[in-house]
Amino acid sequence: MYARKIKAEYEEAGARKPCPIKWLDNFSMRNFTNDQIFDDTLPVGDGVMEVGARVPLEKLKTAMEDWFRRKGYLPKSQQVLISEET
Fold first, then answer.
1. What's the whole-model pTM score?
2. In the chain, which end has fewer C-beta atoms inside a 10 angstrom radius, N or C?
3. Cα-flanking dihedrals φ and ψ of residue 26, to 5°?
4. d(CA 15, CA 60)
5. For residue 81, what are the contacts with CB-CB under 8 A and spacing of at least 6?
């Protein structure tokens, strides 16, 4: 089910930092979108998630940014950076 490993980072003061597992876990456990596609996400550490093959990364990025901003984790001036590990 979790066929892909991705990195989830954000930029702060020009440096990339891993999204803390607290953020990732909060997004995965209390996903506000009610979109079943995000059921296939599993945080495994700071900045690291395993996701299913059907999870679109751009949609995941947008949803994570929105949720992190709602929770006060991510200022509006910052963005989430998603990349797939090979």
1. 0.86
2. C
3. -60, -40
4. 21
5. 7, 8, 9, 10, 11, 16, 61
| Euclidean distance between CA atoms 2 and 51, whole angstroms | 5
Spell out the per-residue pLDDT of the chain, length 86, in tens. 578 999 999 998 889 999 999 999 988 876 555 677 777 888 999 999 999 888 899 999 999 999 999 999 999 999 999 999 87
Distance from C-alpha of 11 to C-alpha of 18, rounded to nearest angstrom: 9
Rounded-to-integer distance, Cα 76 and Cα 86, Å: 30
DSSP symbols for 17-86:
EEPPHHHHHHHHHS-TT--GGGGGEEEEETTEEEE-TT--HHHHHHHHHHHHHHHTSS-TT--EEEEE--
Between CA 69 and CA 45 the distance in angstroms is 20
The DSSP call for residue 86 is -
Q: Could you tell me the end-to-end alpha-carbon distance of the chain, in angstroms, rounded to an integer?
A: 17
